[in-house]
Structure formats: structure tokens, C-alpha cells
Specification:
- By secondary structure, the protein is α/β, with parallel strands linked by helices.
- The protein folds into two domains: 63 residues, no CATH class; 174 residues, Rossmann fold, CATH 3.40.50.
- It is built from 13 helices and nine strands.
- The strands form three sheets. A five-stranded parallel β-sheet has the order 3-9-8-4-5, sandwiched between helices. A two-stranded antiparallel sheet has the order 1-2. Strands 6-7 form a two-stranded antiparallel sheet.
- The radius of gyration is 23 Å and the shape is globular.
- The termini are far apart.
């Protein structure tokens, strides 16, 4: 059986320390030897310690601390920046059918807004996400959070940094705050996956955007109440579940600062809104939101709302857009 050995993170650290002990003149030669030896080492280790990709169960053929095959990593398309709400990133249309029939263009910047942002603008400036919460990206986030594989945060954080770096209106001085877990949940999981993402994202973003001064405030915000899991809750239940859940531990790191709030998933926006309100009450100058994945609820709501008997070419053409939008009354 062909497989792959997944070495623990300590192995990589020991290798890095060993490399650091070589004089600069010999380091290049050491790396060249390592590259030559890597292929046979991979083959031997994979034969002795076979392993499978945790997403697709295909054999893994290279040494790594992340048990994911190359094909699955390549199956992480970035979300197209077009056809999205200019504030929250909600999908404005699907398959040629426009959900935001009442969407308007912001007079100042010409961006299209979804009905919710038009009627009740979020307290944050905008929200950006790397990709849609589905397929391989969804699987990777589950492995990070629930299977407790923290090394997955390394490549995912770099992807998130790439999406943030594309925003042209980022403040020159930015403080990054990760959405906190309650102490009980963090002890149970062993880490806060959002903090791990934030650490990698900040390092990668500093390299991509050297024009920005970026700080990471790891302990600035806390969670004072063990809330119910948001999964399965309706939007109004999510808002009620999070009300008053967050507090500011270190106001000196928040007051007068532009904040980049980081989380793993944006679903209804309830968490982003409640955290933003908490930060603004503590004196933050402005808040921007970045998440690894975005759950595009318009598409889900559409397929749930439209009766199955209308899934025909004639029926789809005859769908009343106003009635479709009316079906989104439970949005957050």
C-alpha cells in the first residue's frame, strides 16, 4: 500500500533548528542535499507509515504535517468578488435569478447592496471571505475545529491573508482581533482555531502589504458566556444567543483603533455584528470583518423556498422574483 507519513509539528521545528546551526555558506548545500534525499525519504516513509488524505481518502505521497493531498488543496477556489453585496458579501443572484430585487447602488462608491444592508446597514465597514463554505473548504474547517488538527491553520491563514490584501481601503494602522471562544470550549478543544488563523494571517499579511502597520491583539476581547452552538439556530435565535456574550479585556488595545475582526465562518452575520457592537462601544474607530469562508444563504434560501414542482425550464422562468425575496424574511 502506498501512503504517507505525517510527522508531528515538533519534527519540523527540530529540522528548522538543525538548519539554523549550519553556517550560511553551508546552508545552501545542506538544503540541496535535503532536496535530493526527499524523494526517496518520502517513498520509504510512506511505505512504512502509510496514511490517507482526510478529505478524499486517497494515498498521501509526501511528507507533511497536514494530512491533506495536493488535489484537495487545489480544490479551494477563491470566491469571485463580483455579484456580491458591497458590505456583507452576500450573493446577489444565482443562475441568472436576482434575489436582491430591491438592491440599490451606494451613492458614494457605486457598490450594489443586498436588501438587508440597504435597510439595516451592519455596524462594520465591510466583510470579506476567501471562499464559499462548501466542499473541500468546509471539510478543512471541520478538520481544524472538530478533528483538532491545528496545522491546517497554516495554509488556510495564508489564503485568508491573500483575500484581505486585495482590499484597497484598509487603514494604514490595523489591529487584528480574533473572535474568542468561551474558556470552557477552548479547554475542551485545546485551542481557539480563529486565533491560530489570525496568527498566520497577520504574518502573511505583513509580507503582502508592507505598507500597513498590523498588530495582533490576542487577548483584547473575551467571551463571558458559554453560548449555545449557532448551528441549527434561526437568525433571530442566533442574535438572541449572542447578545451580551462578548466583552473587552484590554480596552487600551481597542480605543481609537481600526479593528480587523477575524473568524472562520460568516453565516448570518450575527457573530460579526455582536462583536462589532462590542468593539465600537469600547471605543474602536472602525471595524472590518474577514472570514475564511462565507455561507451563501441566498442560494440555500432560494432552493428551500421555491417548490420542487417549479424546477423546470418554464417554471424557473415564471418564478415571481418578489415572492422569492419575500421568502427571505428570516435573514439576519
Amino acid at each position: 500500500m502506498v501512503g504517507r507519513c505525517v510527522f508531528p509539528k515538533q519534527f519540523s521545528r527540530q529540522s528548522s533548528n538543525l538548519a539554523g546551526s549550519f553556517p550560511p555558506s553551508e546552508l545552501a548545500a545542506w538544503r540541496a542535499v535535503a532536496r535530493v534525499l526527499r524523494s526517496p525519504l518520502d517513498a520509504v516513509s510512506c511505505a512504512v507509515f502509510p496514511s490517507l488524505c482526510r478529505l478524499c481518502n486517497q494515498p498521501l505521497l509526501h511528507l507533511s504535517t497536514v494530512p491533506i493531498c495536493a488535489d484537495c488543496w487545489h480544490d479551494l477556489p477563491e470566491q469571485a468578488p463580483t455579484n456580491l453585496c458591497g458590505i456583507c458579501g452576500e450573493l446577489l443572484s444565482l443562475g441568472g435569478i436576482r434575489f436582491a430585487t430591491n438592491a440599490t447602488r451606494n451613492q458614494s462608491d457605486g457598490e450594489s447592496l443586498c436588501p438587508l444592508c440597504e435597510q439595516a446597514r451592519p455596524p462594520f465597514q465591510w466583510a470579506v471571505a476567501y471562499g464559499v463554505y462548501q466542499d473541500s473548504l468546509r471539510g478543512l474547517i471541520h478538520l481544524l475545529k472538530y478533528e483538532r488538527i491545528p496545522t491546517i491553520a497554516q495554509p488556510l491563514g495564508k489564503l485568508l491573508a491573500a483575500s484581505i490584501a486585495q482590499k484597497n481601503d484598509l487603514p494604514a494602522n490595523l489591529t487584528v482581533v480574533a473572535v474568542p471562544l468561551h474558556a470552557t470550549k477552548q479547554r475542551e478543544r485545546g485551542f481557539n482555531q480563529t486565533v491560530l488563523l489570525a496568527e498566520v494571517t497577520v504574518r502573511a499579511l505583513r509580507k503582502r502589504r508592507p505598507d500597513l502597520q498590523i498588530d495582533l491583539a490576542r487577548e483584547a476581547m473575551g467571551r463571558q458566556r458559554a453560548t449555545e452552538s449557532q448551528s441549527g439556530l434561526r437568525p433571530h435565535q442566533r442574535r438572541r444567543n449572542l447578545r451580551g456574550a462578548f466583552f473587552i479585556r484590554q480596552p487600551e488595545q481597542i480605543t481609537g483603533r481600526a479593528i480587523l475582526l477575524l473568524d472562520d465562518i460568516y453565516t448570518t452575520g450575527a457573530t460579526a455584528r455582536e462583536c462589532t457592537r462590542t468593539l465600537l462601544r469600547a471605543g474602536a474607530a472602525s471595524v472590518y470583518v474577514a472570514t475564511l469562508a462565507r455561507s451563501q444563504r441566498e442560494g440555500v434560501a432560494f432552493w428551500d423556498f421555491v417548490p420542487a414542482r417549479k424546477f423546470t425550464a418554464v417554471g424557473m422562468a415564471a418564478i415571481d422574483e418578489a415572492s422569492v425575496v419575500q421568502g427571505f424574511g428570516v435573514r439576519d
